[in-house]
Structures are given as structure tokens and as C-alpha cells.
Design a protein that fits this description.
The protein has 222 residues and is of the alpha/beta class. Helices cover 33% and strands 15% of the residues. Strands 3-2-1-4-5-6-7-8 form an eight-stranded mixed beta sheet, sandwiched between helices.
């Protein structure tokens, strides 16, 4: 059983938490508004779920899911994230985050920017390319013929291995998309972002195999 800490508990974070609980893991939720605002969802998820401050959630997690706006990276609890495997679900959006020169110029990916704030963590990009309702509905047990795949990107082999094991435990296969520098291939608007799993109007989504994910990553242009 893995303990998964969440820095941010919005749609994607709470969906990953729900899948993690169903797979037998423990979760510690946090957000920017305080643990009392997460009491209801923690109670709904059951005894293996709890709410805490962001620092406490980061410290508690064997794996920590960072799922916040990119412009909130400077506010992350840096010290407790040191040495941790961190899943980065974040997508850059200038209309929400404001303009960040390194991202606008494409000299960095948003995950590489995150790594600058938490340089001692093993950052792995994952879950940023799928609609939260599809993420919930498309989970399948290992060996299922209609199991869907998710891309991940990262520089740390041990962190990638830990994230792969976690993702497989909650119902998905994994496609290794390369280092963090390649994580733009799964960013907003790329062929692997959203589209393979079906339109948002279809809340159940459609299963997507490994080959289709690899092909979508390969056709991305920057």
C-alpha cells in the first residue's frame, strides 16, 4: 500500500485520489484553502483518506501529486518535496497563469520549470492529457483487453518506475514518452491531449491502446 499525497485536490487530483483508494492505497489531500475544506471528500473516500496542509501532504506521501496552476509553483512546499517522487499533472495556460517567458519561448517545458522549484524531487509528467471524467471511467484491471494507456515523461528512472507501478495499480498502462524535455508532446493541444479518449461530451470516454498513444506522441509538433 502506497501513501499518495496531493498538493491540490481539484478535478484531476480528487479523481486520482478516488482511483487510488479503490486500488487499496492511502491518500492525504490538501489544497490552498485549508484541510477543513476537504473534510467532506475525505469522509466520502473513507478511512484511508485524510486532509492536511500542503506541507503535511507532501511530507506524508511516498508519491506526491502536484496538481495546481503553473503560476502557483513558487508557493509549493519545497522542503518536504525534496527526495520525493512527484507526479506533475499541470498544464500551462497563459490566460489563467499569466505569461511566463520561458514557457512562451518554449525554452522550457512546464515540468522543467516545476523542477527548478523542487530540484531535489523526481518529477514525472502524467495525467495532464486526459479529461477527469474519462480518467475515472476508463480504468480497467490488469490484463483487460480494453485497458487504456497514459503517457509519462521524466528524467529519473526510479521515479518513472514508481509512477508506472502506481498508474498500473489504478487501472492504466503506461507509455514512456521520454525525458521532461519531451513532455511538451503531451501538453495542451497536442494530438495525445484529450482527443484519443473521446470528446468531453462523451463522459464515459473510449479506451485507447498503447500503439495509438505512441502514434499520437510521435505526430506532435512544437
Amino acid at each position: 500500500m502506497t501513501t499518495v499525497g496531493f498538493v491540490g485536490s481539484g478535478y484531476i487530483g480528487s479523481t486520482i485520489a478516488r482511483l487510488a483508494i479503490e486500488a487499496g492505497h492511502r491518500v492525504v489531500l490538501s489544497n490552498s484553502r485549508g484541510p477543513e475544506t476537504l473534510a467532506d471528500i475525505a469522509a466520502e473516500l473513507g478511512p484511508r483518506a485524510s486532509a492536511a496542509t500542503s506541507g503535511e501532504a507532501a511530507a506524508a506521501g511516498d508519491i506526491v501529486v502536484v496538481t495546481v496552476p503553473v503560476n502557483a509553483f513558487p508557493d509549493l512546499p519545497t522542503a518536504p518535496l525534496a527526495g520525493k517522487t512527484v507526479i506533475d499533472t499541470c498544464n500551462y495556460g497563459p490566460e489563467r497563469d499569466g505569461h511566463i517567458p520561458e514557457l512562451d519561448s518554449k525554452s522550457l517545458t512546464s515540468s522543467e520549470l516545476l523542477l527548478r522549484y523542487i530540484p531535489d524531487a523526481g518529477v514525472v509528467k502524467a495525467f495532464n492529457n486526459i479529461f477527469f471524467k474519462h480518467l475515472l471511467s476508463l480504468a480497467r484491471p490488469a490484463g483487460a483487453a480494453d485497458r487504456s494507456y497514459l503517457p509519462i515523461a521524466g528524467d529519473s528512472a526510479p521515479a518513472k518506475a514508481a509512477v508506472t507501478e502506481f498508474i498500473e495499480s489504478i487501472g492504466y498502462g503506461v507509455v514512456d514518452a521520454g525525458p521532461l524535455a519531451y513532455s511538451w508532446r503531451q501538453a495542451t493541444g497536442t494530438p495525445v491531449w484529450g482527443t484519443p479518449y473521446g470528446p468531453f461530451s462523451n463522459e464515459k470516454g473510449q479506451p485507447v491502446g498503447e500503439d495509438a498513444i505512441r502514434a499520437a506522441l510521435a505526430t506532435a509538433t512544437r
